[in-house]
Amino acid sequence: MKYMITGAEPRGESDRLDPEELNRRVRHHQQKLDELLRARVRGGKTGLIFVSVGLGPDRETITVKNSRGKRLQIDGPFPETRELIGGFDIIDFDSCDEAIEFAKYEHAHQSLVSELRPIREFWWISQTFGNAAAKLFMLKSVEDECAVLSLPESERTQIMRQHQGVGAEYVASRGMLDQEPGLWVGGRLDVSSKAKTIRWADGGRRVTDGPFAETREVSGGFNMVACASIGEALTWAEKLAARDGDAIEVRPVDGCWWIYHE
Questions:
Q1: Which of 127, 133, 139, 260 has the CA that lies 20 to 30 A from 186?
Q2: pLDDT of residue 114 exceeding 90
């Protein structure tokens, strides 16, 4: 099963770090991914998916919220939490226990808080032929999970199909079928009750049930999109925020790499 592992830190901490410490943290994370990848390849494991994404600073984040049919643009992440997500990984694991052991990130800095959630649905549309004059943005769907789960199954399916329809519109508008460059990655997360949070406490990393931030709104899914500007990314966010109360957080991607092995 695929899992999304998000890494969060106290808000503003990365801005206060000296470049050497920041680079050390990034290299440590990359080393852990490299060790896992090498072990998987040596073991002959197939069907392997690795996606690792680092996000830009929160000051570059804009949230699009649907309020009674009007699309409002709000500076900053949504919702406001003490800790801020700095990036995420998507990795195949055979079990939740295996994913938790990896997410404990031995020797990582103590302020790191990791959240692990199963991915219910995942799709990837990419065309990289030619030179893309674009950068990547993460469009994170934030929702009132209790309200969404109370909807009839047919309505929840309709919401999913509407998001897929926006992806299809993106493909058509960028001419990807005619080999124009573009990227649309989509993932739908499982319910937050299946999330596990790993944080430093009492001299070690402790695992608790549930997401790392106790808020009414939780992340329900995400899209990673190649756009020429944040203005274009906000246009797609407005299309995704189709229902009253929908919120889409738009944040630049600072770095990204992926591996697929069949």
A1: 133
A2: yes
